[in-house]
Amino acid sequence: MKILLLGYGKMGKEIERIALERGHEIVGRIDVNNQHELENLQKDSVDVGIEFSTPASAVGNIKTCLEKGWPVVCGTTGWLEHKKEIEALCENQKGAFFYASNYSIGVNLFFKLNQQLAKLMRGHDYRVDMTEIHHIHKKDAPSGTAITLAEGLLEEIDYMKGWTLVPEKKEGYIPILSERTGEVPGTHVIRYSSAVDTIEISHTAHSRQGFAQGAVVAGEWLAGKTGIFGMDDLLKLNDQ
After folding, report:
1. Residue 20 neighbours by CB under 8 Å, 6+ apart
2. Active-site positions?
């Protein structure tokens, strides 16, 4: 498979390593220093684009891929106010778009655990909050994974109105504390607290490998398809 890398930071390099190990070819590496080269690539030179750049670059990169007829896998977060626009373009172009806030299989299992615990906590007197910790290079806060976790909580906890980023305080909103330190790949903690005890679930990534491998697998799966997809579609395949 001919893969175009959109974003060539630490994640892009890890995706490249795994893609090459799996027998794929890297046909381009696009970042802020050679963005103009994206327009020069021909349609038949790319089988799939894998987009892990920055919030400022992601929308333009995805649009270019869809307009050129390339399936695109995106893991960049912080741009989701444009997601409906991208999905409409994908449908109009009869293209293929795969988005996930996190490509780790473990994290996606954690999403499901998060919702299951939220169901169990209904009717009990606990306050819920979240902490997410990432490396100092991460541009957005809270993380896309934290937002997905918060959305999962909001589906199950009907008395909460939304989420808010600490130190802002809003009654009826899930507080999310975002910390940026060192080279932490990603840690997410959901905490339920009462006057008598605390219940926590957490996911800690030890490296970027799980995220990168999931993105490459998503690219392999997406090739030849049309439509809008996410990790649930990929996990269903694994369940069959």
Report:
1. 26
2. 134, 138
**Which tens digit of pLDDT belongs to each residue from 17-68?**
999 999 999 999 999 889 889 988 988 999 999 999 999 999 999 999 999 9
136-158 pLDDT, tens digit each: 988 889 998 999 999 999 999 98
C-alpha to C-alpha distance for 149 and 197, rounded to whole angstroms: 22
- Three-state DSSP at 198 gives strand
What are the tokens at 23?
Answer: 């027998």
The two three-digit tokens of residue 102, written as one number: 């996190």
Q: CB of 8 within 8 A of CB of 45?
A: no
Other beta carbons within 10 angstroms of residue 26's beta carbon come to 17
| Phi–psi pair at 167, nearest 5 degrees | -90, 5
Torsion angle (degrees, nearest 10) of CA 16, 71, 104, 126: 150
- Residue from 175, 76, 80 nearest 130 by CA: 175
